[in-house]
Amino acid sequence: MLARLRPYLSTAALALLIFYFGVHAFTGEGGLLRSNQRDEALAAKTRELARLTAQRHDLEVRAQLLRDTSLSADLLEERARSLLGFADPRDYVIRLKP
Predict the structure, then answer these.
(1) Is residue 1 domain-resident?
(2) N or C: which terminus of the chain has fewer CB atoms within 10 Å of its end residue's CB?
């Protein structure tokens, strides 16, 4: 019986190997069926990158305005009031807990 099946064992092993890799190509971590999840993750990371880039640009501009060479009086006054806790009598102050 085994002698009769011996010529087909290599073909069966190859077919099982192809089936195994085929299943993982579709359902594995980087498979074709998970492309929607990868697209959603990429879109979320792209939005986060855009937000962080805008935040960094804002911080760089504010830091540039606080340098000795180009000091902005308004920004300096705003930072001093914020750090010292002072407010102008005409200002509306809304305090938020950090």
Answers:
(1) no
(2) C
